[in-house]
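[retry 2/3] Type 4 prepilin-like proteins leader peptide-processing enzyme: previous attempt timed out, resubmitting with same input.
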Amino acid sequence: MAMLLCAAPLVWAAITDFRKRIIPDWTWIAILLIGGTSAFLLPYPTLLERIAGFLLPGLCLFLLAVKYGGVGGGDIKLTAAMGFCFGLYSLAAILFFALVPACIYAKVTKQKSVPLAVFLGIGFFTYAGVLFIYGLICC
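[retry 2/3] Type 4 prepilin-like proteins leader peptide-processing enzyme: success.
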């Protein structure tokens, strides 16, 4: 259910990141609030997995931004919010599905910086589709 609610702010973040290279604060805040609410309503992901999903990727992107300057603050906040909402393992799958198209985009456009929210959205919808198909097959 949390995945469904996060779709709208994530799509808006992707659109504005692609057009203006900025991620509106309300998008990551909405995802974080959805994650906080679902933490009380749903047993999975666990609170520990949510905290790990919030801290680890956010910290890694922050360190990359400090060292290389290629990651924006909105990307860090959005990734951290998604990590808290979906948990570390789901975020890892989303990032896995986002990595390939992001690398292809960077190679084709010869850009060092990519609008990360676009590819987080692609990874999110791919992961949601995989879960949906898996649910159809298994049930």
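[retry 2/3] Type 4 prepilin-like proteins leader peptide-processing enzyme: Residues 2-138 form one domain.
[retry 2/3] clearing retry counter.
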